[in-house]
Fold these 3 entries.
Entry 1:
Amino acid sequence: MGEVVVGVDEAGRGPLAGPVVCACVSWKEGVDRPPIRLNDSKSLSFAQRKRAFKFIVENLYWSVSIIDVYAIDRLNIRRATLSGMSEALTILLDKYPQLRQRKLLVLVDGKDSFDLPVSINGRCRPVIKGDKYVLEISCASILAKVIRDYIMFGLDCLYPEYGFADHKGYATAQHLKAIDQFGPCRVHRRSYRPVVQMRLW
């Protein structure tokens, strides 16, 4: 039997607030590709992402790991993201132990990859623009994006003055103005320069 491909991606590296969500997806044998778009999450509409998300969670092997702002500030965004990706893979294998019996090819979107535990039979490598070219990474991208968006909708209810439902924590003019007016809240990343430079209290 050949290698089992596991796609890994994240959502939320760039924003000033909210968590990073890391996701792993592997295609199940016998599952046909559906008549819906499965592509880089940024290229899909909200409705397309919701349809794709439903297909992924109902039909494929999947897992997520959520990295909070405290870990991001403590570790830095790169280390926190790679740690989250590694954790998501561990969750995937715990959730679907049959995958531990297979040789894995773990493909990570972007320039970075992470070391696999010695207990895992496989290899891990980065793929530039993998969310456009590798189906499993595209699915991981969709999964991470949809879950993070819903987290930001929830944070918008807790902190309505910041407009998280609109900009999802990115450094828009609206968001920067709110930070300047109200100061950062608990879900802002204090290690990010635009937040540091704003009024802290």
Entry 2:
Amino acid sequence: MKNIKYFGLLLMVAVFAISCTKTEDLNPVPTTLIAGASAFETPARISNQVNGLYATFKGTGLWGSNYILYSEARAGEFISTNQNPLQGGLTYMMLTDAGTTDVNIVWQQAYQAINACNVFLEGMDALGRKAAGDSLYNNYTAEAKVLRAITYYSLLQLYAQPYRNNAGKNPGLPLRLKGNTGLADYNLARSTVAEVYQQIIKDLDFAENNLPSKYASAALNTTRVNKNSAIAFKTRVYLTMGDYTNVTVEANKLVSTTAPFTTTNATRTTHSLPADITTVFKSPYTSTESMFSVAFSAADAPGNSLATNFLPNSADGTGLGAAGTGQFYVFEQGIVSDATWKTTDKRRNFIFTTPSGTNKGRFWCTKFVVGTPFTDYIPVIRYSEVLLNLAEALANLNGLDTRSTALLNAVRGRSDATTVFIPSSKADLINKIIAERRIEFFGEGIRNGDIMRLGLPIPAKTPTGSTPVPASNPSDGNYIWPIPNNEALYNKLIG
């Protein structure tokens, strides 16, 4: 009974704590507690705990919007209209420090998600297997490990040097694999970047072997991770590590050898490129391209949505049909100016142009276009990324690779059938793939990670009529975020 109360209390602390003081950041006080003895008592109640893990993962500070928003604010495809420090302005200007809200809020939300997963895993090991049975035990623990893996990966893209620097031997993150029970447990030194990536792969490998092949509905197959979700995310992780061989190993589990490049395992979820990319970002958000997305509804709206920030205000959005606060517009000198991105490309439908007024001609991202309460789903990973991950890996391994070129043309051809790439060299092929990623995934938080894994500078932002932001080189102090003050205050081993 004592152990049951212990795990029940910890789990509800991890999942339901929302607002915290500095001390409460580490020992949050729950607003709601169920009886500790019942936390892992039945499969239904354990299922509720799993739903809580997804809820914490999609909190505003993490995948609910801010992780993606801040990643895009850094990466050079968007311009801040007013450098609002409450809406990513300091991140945009590359002026963050250890006390900046952006730096602290992502870290706090991420480690709340990690701690929720850790406490849940401990509860399942101690009590949940008996109540749920082996099958559900494997399913639920695998889901928790995927969410933990994605969260650690997300943190690495902001707070740690890229894997390519010093072969992952640089300081990474505190690698917490046990639930926090109090300040006495909080001191933990940073593991290396490589060690954190090793744990991410370990979690994803476990998940691939233990997740369901598919769920009973398209909605669940989109909003809960399954075997294909775990495999897909491994292609992203290995690409970030520069491990092109393992990218191909994992991607080949999902991608057919030749066009039209669909998944081949009939027992699992089926994935392909829908003919119209705009359907991926429309209700019901369950296209064959959607491999894992976070879901929102009117009763479960994000606190600070991407649409709020990316959509123009009413004055600049005349005719659009939905309005936001206009915090970030699309940089006119960024990828939107690429001459190979034709005006007839269907992905141009995700760009709205202010028709009149002071800001006539200004571009806005409309991938997330549902108006208040801003309930667009947010893709965590899409099938088109797996294709481009594989294309890039094959090009790096084999040079001017035929299948790599075909994969690139499949992604471009879905939205622009009039363009067929004929690369002239290995470098040309890779450059075309990287440019295609910028077009395909703009606004989805991927560009920042691409910049870092490729060892590129974070580009200068030189908008017309606004304050320029200089480039940040990999050797510059502002290239990655610092460890937040709150962590350094309570973790005496952080260094």
Entry 3:
Amino acid sequence: MAAPILSVRDLHTQFFTDDGVVQAVDGVSFDLFPGETLGIVGESGCGKSMTALSIMRLVPEPGRITKGVVRFRDQDLLKKTPEEMREIRGRDIAMIFQDPQSSLNPVLQTGYQVEEAMLVHDKVPKERAPQRTIDLLKQVRIPAAERRVKDFPHQMSGGMRQRAMIAMGLSNTPSLLIADEPTTALDVTVQAQILELLADLNREIDTSIVMITHNLGVVAGLCTRVIVMYAGRIVEEGPVERIFDNPQHPYTWALLRSIPRIDASRHDRLKSIEGLPPDLIKPPHGCRFHPRCPFRVERCFTDDPVLEDVGPEQRAACWVTMKRAYAEMGARDLVDVSPGAASGVHAAGKGG
């Protein structure tokens, strides 16, 4: 197997507030391989976006990366100077943010902003930059690109602005693209178009993609592997199809039960996850999910679980995996939650 293009080890990011230290990212480790599409999912506040910002060295105050290694190819990004990181950002690693309206400068033409992203890294001669900009807008399927390069952001639809952000991210043909909730504010049709575009770009130019999202359908439609985060930590990871068809952590299981499935009866009620995510200033002892977990045992209250193999290429951090829950509680008590129950979500995602 090829060496990882990105390797994150024991990453800790904390926010030092008047109320205490928020453990936003708490010991996250994972690898991303060339050409791979990796999804990172979880509820709001679980640390997925902060993990991405930590990789990019864009953690806002009063946050600080306190520990860990972020190795991109053969370079530890956490040891780079601010000037060195500015060279890497946009050239080798690009990030698409959630809200293009706030990411694009409202007083500059969209084409100029895409062109500027190229020129700052000297990857395209100045005389070729205008045509390269038009070509990029065409590549991300913006119609009438020759005219649209002169449009200001407010003259574009939400979908077009998001495409312009993707064009900006791709302007220097980065090896790694991090997309932070890129379809959240878009309608379903445009979401499907953006996901199809990212999948095509992944195939055509072999860019590795990290997709940050709370939408498991998005992961099903784009990613080959998924990481599930809860309360700043990774609780499960593995190939998308295996995680969706055979989740082993109760939180993953609960997430999959809480979203609509195309194979479900119209009268079936969605199952919510009871309770609220923990306070990351004073997280609970033991497993952080235990206050909300229907399968918790005594050990969950005291001991921190670690990620362990639970199947081929699949790992979970849990003292009571779903395999054990099936065995001990029986199918009668786990109706509609057996392995394979999430396949309807997977099918829906693949269909766009």
